[in-house]
Amino acid sequence: MANPAPPVDPAGAGDGSGSRCLSHSYSTVDSDGASDSRIDTLEAVLKGDKYAVGDEKLVKAICALGEATAHIALLLQNYVEHTFAGTQNTSGDEQLHLDIDCDNAVFAAIRSSGVYAVAASEETPTETSVDGGGGGGAFSIGFDPLDGSSIIDANFSVGSIYGIWPGKGLLGRKGREQVASAVALYGPRTTLCVALPGSAGPKVLEVTLINNRSSWELSRDSIVLKPAGKVFAPGNLRASNDNPKYASLINHWIEERYTLRYSGGMVPDVYHMFAKSKGVFSNVSSEKARAKLRLLYEVAPIGLIVECAGGATTHEAHDGSVLDEVIDDLDRRLGVCFGSSEEVEKYKQFMFK
Q1: pLDDT confidence of residue 30
Q2: Whether the Cβ atoms of residue 35 and residue 41 lie closer than 8 Å to each other
Q3: pTM > 0.70: yes or no
Q4: Are 105 and 128 a contacting pair, CB within 8 Å?
């Protein structure tokens, strides 16, 4: 007989208001790693000469994502039971207690920062006020708190995805309007990759959580994608069964002896490109297998990182950056190609001819 499901704060299922993650409260979950020191170290990186982020509120907004990431890292390290909460997200996927706890952890961090007005996530797919009613929030955020929960049983790497927009509201916006985005990767290390598209020129950096989650250290000062690279991650591979153009592209990659790096998780598969400074990631639809990537929670934030790193992006079905797609529905889904500029161009030659 399966073990009983651990308790979940019912107030946190679907609205990000939960105050507890199983037996841990968010205020005491970091007793072995001081929150203040984490914020100080990440703030120092962002404000330093290399990146010179001068907007104090933006620094606070990004540091809040560092706090959320650190909380989620601890949750992942201490989860044993793969248990379901008895609820579904808008995709119809059964939600794990872990999904809801990670969602609550992000909401807690962004509320505490005092700089966000509105938030929406894959688990809480509504524009939710997070400014405490004061109306002083400078930013809105769309996020996926735990990307890859379907592969977590195998102890694969998983991630979190965050996109920050200026002002209040997410509907009607484009990815190109983001003032920053980030993706966290949880594996042997916990890392946070941050895109800064500011007027001084786009930059992408990586920090690593160290010293028992007590501080962030700059681990890569500049992430740049080379124009070409024979590494591929073909998402939604089943679509190649009834999409002959996709099947032809995949055969090309194999015939040209590309290296396959695919785990089934979007974050680790795209992050591998950042680690190797090259490659291509695709997620393509067919009549029988539609792409499920969300523009707000996944595509726009990661698309910003890819383009800030010198790479390219395109909608799966037409030639155009994903950053120019309008978020006309919080659940809008699409297929994509991300990666080295020449590899994305090769995708277009096969898929748009």
Answers
A1: 54
A2: no
A3: yes
A4: no
